[in-house]
Amino acid sequence: MYLVWLVRVGYLTGQELPRDDVARWAPPVLLLPPAAVLFCVMAGWMWWGSVVERTRSPLRERWIVASLVFVAAASVFCGVASVDDPSFSVGLLSATVTGLGMVGLFFIPAAASRQLPDVIRRRSHRTGTAPGEAEPQ
User: Fold this and answer.
1) What digits encode the pLDDT tens for the residues 29-74?
2) d(Cα 14, Cα 115) in Å, to the nearest integer?
3) CB 52 within 8 A of CB 119
4) What is the pTM of this model?
């Protein structure tokens, strides 16, 4: 749903550009949806790998955070620029759709993993320990 929305608002944003401008079609329609999928799923995959391996979160890496911020900013911009009369409510709706879509793309690797039940079991055992107790292995 998010990707369909991105293509639609990208198309509408491109229509605001002059007819002879190459950017009329390429960036908003052909580049933003694949970039959103690539950056969000890549960050989600690295995050999920760190959860499974019990290492530090890759969301602390600047390039991953920067790529997610880029996708969010470009997506919200396209949503606001695609309407004739931008307002606060349009920006809020665009930010909401962007946030929900990016969260969905971010969690695809975790949802598709066969290791999800093991990680859930491991995490639930860890929260059952009292402070100061050793974690069960």
Assistant:
1) 677 788 888 888 888 888 888 888 877 777 778 888 888 898 899 8
2) 42
3) yes
4) 0.68
| Amino acid in the structure at residue 119 | V
Q: Which amino acid is at 66?
A: A
The C-alpha atoms of residue 15 and residue 95 are separated, in whole angstroms, by 21
**pLDDT, tens digit (0-9, with 9 covering 90-100), for 67-94:** 889 889 988 888 888 788 888 998 899 8
Nearest CA-CA partner of 52 in 128, 134, 125, 109 = 109
Sequence letter at residue 82: S
Interhelix angle 32-53/2-14, nearest 10 degrees: 150
Residue pair 12/27 in contact by the 8 Å Cβ criterion: no
Contact of 58 with 76, CB cutoff 8 Å:
no
Contacts of 132 (CB under 8 A, 6+ apart): none
Assigned token pair, 109: 């690797």
User: How big is the CA angle at 106 (ends 104 and 112), to the nearest 5 degrees?
Assistant: 80
